């Protein structure tokens, strides 16, 4: 019997809340090789973005940001119901892509904030990682990470200043 290969889960924990160039470079490299890539920035916003207006960096890289009227990435702000809905809309879309292998690489930027802001549970995040299609690799970033997610990951990178 041959064991089926399972995609990797990589966790990047960094003190700075920004998407590092090597993560973008990895997404571009994978997309350039012909594999679909989905990059979701749950708490970064932009004008006319969201599911209705994704950005295409290259042919195979879809980049989604939250559709919100203000910057929701800052610590200590309370999200409105509309903002919560916009973030969760991206989460549900990402889950669907992960489960169906709609992309070979899915980058979930600041997924830890989904848990910290009580939009999803730690268990739900971990379950999505575990139930992913075997063809899907996932990168999860954040300034912190639930222990269960870090323990489950194939690779954990702790960045320093």
Give the spatial strand order of the biggest sheet. 3-4-2-5-6-1-7
Stretches where pLDDT is under 50 for at least 5 consecutive residues are none
Regarding quaternary structure, how should these chains be classified? single chain
Order of helices and strands: EHEEEHEHHEHE
Distance between the first and last residues' Cα: 46 Å
Q: How many helices does DSSP assign?
A: 5
- The proportion of residues in beta strands is 15-25%
Radius of gyration, Cα only, in angstroms? Answer: 15 Å
Give the fraction of residues assigned to helices: 25-40%
Task: Count the beta strands.
Answer: 7
Offer a concise description of the structure.
This is Cob(I)yrinic acid a,c-diamide adenosyltransferase. The chain is an alpha/beta fold.
Question: Could you characterize what this model shows?
Answer:
With 161 residues, the chain is an alpha/beta fold. It is 33% helix and 24% strand. The protein contains 5 helices and 7 strands; from the N terminus they run βαβββαβααβαβ. It has helices spanning 21-32, 81-100, 111-116, 122-130, 147-152, and strands at residues 9-13, 37-45, 55-58, 61-66, 105-109, 137-142, 155-158. A 7-stranded mixed beta sheet has the order 3-4-2-5-6-1-7, with helices on both faces. It is globular and about 50 Å long. The termini are far apart. 34% of the residues are buried. The mean pLDDT is 90. This is Cob(I)yrinic acid a,c-diamide adenosyltransferase. It holds the Pfam family CobA_CobO_BtuR. InterPro entries: CblAdoTrfase_CobA (IPR003724), P-loop_NTPase (IPR027417).
């Amino acid at each position: 019997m041959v064991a089926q290969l399972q995609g990797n889960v990589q966790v990047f924990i960094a003190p700075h809340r920004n998407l590092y160039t090597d993560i973008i470079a990895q997404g571009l490299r994978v997309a350039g090789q012909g594999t679909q890539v989905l990059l979701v920035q749950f708490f970064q916003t932009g004008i006319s973005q969201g599911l209705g207006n994704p950005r295409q960096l290259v042919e195979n890289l879809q980049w989604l940001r939250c559709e919100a009227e203000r910057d929701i990435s800052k610590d200590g702000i309370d999200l409105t119901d509309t903002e919560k809905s916009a973030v969760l809309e991206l989460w549900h879309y990402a889950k669907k892509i992960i489960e169906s292998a709609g992309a070979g690489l899915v980058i979930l930027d600041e997924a830890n904030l989904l848990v910290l802001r009580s939009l999803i549970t730690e268990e739900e995040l971990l379950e999505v990682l575990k139930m992913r299609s075997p063809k899907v690799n996932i990168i999860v970033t954040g300034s912190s990470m639930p222990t269960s997610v870090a323990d489950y990951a194939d690779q954990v990178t702790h960045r320093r200043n």
